[in-house]
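Today's session is about reading a structure prediction critically. Students often jump straight to the picture, but the first step is always the sequence itself: look for stretches that repeat, for charged clusters, for runs of hydrophobic residues. Only then move on to the predicted structure, which in these notes is written as discrete structure tokens rather than atom positions. Here is the chain we will use throughout the hour.
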Amino acid sequence: MVNHSILLERLTDIGIQDICTLTTILPKLLPNFLTNNSYISFSGCILQMYCYMMCVDTEILLLTAMAFDRYVAICNPLRYTIIMNKRVCVLLAAVTWVTGSLETLPHTVVISQFSFCNSNVINHFFCEITAVLKLSCTDTFVLDTMILAASVISGLTPFLLTLTSYVFIISTILKIRSAEGKSKAFSTCFSHLIVIILLYGTMIGIYMEPSSGDSTKSNKLPTAVYIFTLPLLNPLIYSLRSKELKVALKKALSRKPKYVSH
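Below is the predicted structure for this chain, in token form.
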């Protein structure tokens, strides 16, 4: 049914974004473990914070663009090559990276002007924004308002757009009569849908913690999952679309275990 192009997926390569996330945290984190020296300069902390937030925002936008790509592929397959032409794909890829870079810049600039007098110990394994703000003795009302507005723009809006795309996708799939057609359409979205569930699941765990108690401790685990686990899972999840991998998995699962008598 769907002759799905992966041009957008290549241009908005999640693997590049995963590498960006890891290189933001690991170069400073690993020496801290090896040398037991957990110091980071103020400028280095601000830069790390900016890069991390930029990676998160960019990944959300990339997945939203890919959701639209799959919506067109399944709901308008005959017009797919016209709507999702090379120019549109390049434009979507450029917009996601540029928007992700610009969205987090105001937060970083404002935080860099804050005074930090409560402590110099960040209760996290990297410069996470909520952990850093707890150390500030400056009124954070303006920044909190900015973060709330940015969360709606860069978080809730893409989520609603992605959800809308999948409502139409699922509705179209259910109307397909043949089982083979449904299977092909579903396989087009399967890997992307898993990544979306994992991403928004960890984001909810990170930023939707209870207001009471030490929320920084409670969001360390989902943050670690997002930073270290998702980049490892993403290549495997997206490779599930590979016919060679599917054949190899079927062979491995169909093999009967050999028993050795003693």
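Discussion point for the tutorial: The chain has one domain: 7-241.
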